[in-house]
Amino acid sequence: MTVEMREGYEGTGPGAITPDGCAVELYSRLPAGDEPDIIAGAVPAGAHILELGSGVGRMTHPLLERGFTVTAVDESAEMLERVHGARTIRGAIEDLDLGERFDVVLLASFLVHAGDVEVRRGMLRTCARHMAEGGCVLIQREGEDYHTNLPRERVDPSGFTLRMVSAEPVGDGVNSVRAEYVFPDAVWTQTFLARPLTKEEFEGALAEAGLEVDEYLTPDRVWVRAVRAA
Predict the structure, then answer these.
(1) Rounded CA gap, 202 and 16, in Å?
(2) Closest CA to 194 of 221, 173, 163, 220
(3) Of 10, 29, 43, 88, which one's alpha carbon is 20 to 30 angstroms from that of 189?
(4) Distance between CA 43 and CA 48 in Å, rounded?
(5) pTM of whole model > 0.90?
(6) Residue 1: what pLDDT?
(7) Are 126 and 93 in contact (CB under 8 A)?
(8) Is 89 helix (H, G, I), strand (E, B) or coil?
(9) Listed residue (99, 93, 105) closest to 68, CA to CA
């Protein structure tokens, strides 16, 4: 099946590729790392989590194992087919309105750095709209040198190499980022658009959506807990 790629996005490698360049088989292989522990340590036990951009369930499944209830949202049917044990909803994050509120809304995978400002605004409004009274939003940001410490590579303990190859300006404060995932038996690439955000720009984007930082959860300020602005 041929998938029409979103402008500025591209993916190569075995298996299905989503319109934003994500390879379903690749994401099925990627380990969750310490991310589920970071999330679990920042929210109440047993919370109901709305996971925006769940993909194949890389974090969904470990969160379910830790006793959370998860509603997983993704625009890719192929991705959601790999999610088990959670309620799944197919749709674009920026347009989502379930008419429900959740203890925790999760926006990971650097989605807050969407190249299109209106898409980012829509995503953050979705977060605010679905957050219960007294709830929180957990957001994963890019590292502060994400676009400048290039090229770089990391060998994962599970046996693959991630190479961040380049980040080239394409106008309006957006970079075209290229990543390579090298496994012993396969190679995938992904090219995508990302908008670098300083800490101040990020906090300004939150304020537009009626949110504010409650706490930076990691020393590198990549993981953030946000709440409704006072």
Answers:
(1) 32
(2) 173
(3) 88
(4) 10
(5) yes
(6) 45
(7) yes
(8) strand
(9) 105
